[in-house]
Amino acid sequence: KLDESDMVTFSAPVNIAIIKYWGKSCQKLNLPMNSSLSLNLNQDHLQAKTTIATSSTFIKDRIWLNGKEQDVEGNTRLQACLKEIRRLARLQAVKRNEDVHRVTRCSQKVHISSRNNFPTAAGLASSAAGYAALVAALGQLYRVDGDLSGVARCGSGSACRSMLGGFVEWVKGGKSDGTDSIAQQFVGEEHWPELRVLIVVTSAQTKAVGSTEGMQRSVETSALLQHRVDNVVPDRMKALTDAILNKDFSAFAEICMKESNQLHAVCQDTFPPLRYLNNVSEQIIRFVHAYNEHCSDTRVAYTFDAGPNAFLFVLERHLSEVASLIYKIFGPATDNATDFFRGERFKAYQS
Ligand code: PMV
């Protein structure tokens, strides 16, 4: 029988990167080649929820993802998180002069159950939300204080940004041990409540090349990636933070779309090339530019991570018009849908 302190549940939101992280300077510690900045989405719509139990009777660590048990031993990212959180837990327990029982408890095995309320591994940042919820729950279970974004980063780089709310920057840092490569809140979500996100799921299938493998291939073969890191990202980060502070949608939208396009240009420049967008994604990009031109105003911006699903930013006052247009053009009940979707699932979330 477990008592209350032996079981915790945490949930964490999906974050969508505006300034993209693509390329690691250290594979082992998940250190990024450039800083990135994201927005956390409303947890009611997209979240990972993780429950962790610990007991002295558990003989090994086990994990279930959406009800299906996964391998733990071969999962180096999960192992890295567990190892790091236990190291911090022991260190802090000893510092607090806790009794032997509490110190040994930091090595106790755990059973983890994690669920997403959205498609897993389809470019909807499921691993980011998953690792953030996991690390927050482990931190509570093992009584670890302080910033845990560095631990979440060991699981999935972008997970560190899901540990905080609102607009979050992942500062790349400069230390080789990664201790300064952490997430920092830039502004809270209350800063720009009119900014809304519409998510168009064009495919719920698992991506063919995972982000770790894709990034590695880009680091080895893309000349554009290094140019982007050295000459593009620093200025864009400054321009984006200014646009957010001034709530300047038009400036925000331009940087957002250019960043998405450059990520996918780097993927195209990778050899052999990586293709994450599908034909519907391309149609959505064309729709956004045509619609903004038609309105003589920037009303919608798209961004895509390593997957074909679109994240559309729009101000509250234009949301219902854009959502209904998207649904009309790309929704399942239209003639176009058979061409566009060929039986793939369509779902639009609003956040
Ligand atoms: O954290 P990872 O390893 O899943 O990589 C995420 C990469 C992108 O989603 C494409 C960009 C980003 O900054 O989130």
Automatic annotation (TrEMBL):
Catalytic activity: (R)-5-diphosphomevalonate + ATP = isopentenyl diphosphate + ADP + phosphate + CO2
Short name of one Pfam family: MVD-like_N
Occurrences of domain Mvd1 C-terminal (ranges): 197-351
Keyword Signal among record annotations: no
Pathway field: Steroid biosynthesis; cholesterol biosynthesis
EC code: 4.1.1.33
Residues covered by the Diphosphomevalonate decarboxylase-like N-terminal domain: 12-183
InterPro entries in alphabetical order: GHMP_kinase_C_sf, Mev_decarb, Mev_diP_decarb, MVD-like_N, Mvd1_C, Ribosomal_Su5_D2-typ_SF, Ribsml_uS5_D2-typ_fold_subgr
Keywords annotated in UniProt: ATP-binding, Cholesterol biosynthesis, Cholesterol metabolism, Lipid biosynthesis, Lipid metabolism, Lyase, Nucleotide-binding, Steroid biosynthesis, Steroid metabolism, Sterol biosynthesis, Sterol metabolism
Family from the record: Belongs to the diphosphomevalonate decarboxylase family.
Function: Catalyzes the ATP dependent decarboxylation of (R)-5-diphosphomevalonate to form isopentenyl diphosphate (IPP). Functions in the mevalonate (MVA) pathway leading to isopentenyl diphosphate (IPP), a key precursor for the biosynthesis of isoprenoids and sterol synthesis.
Protein name per the record: Diphosphomevalonate decarboxylase
Gene source species: Clavelina lepadiformis (Light-bulb sea squirt)
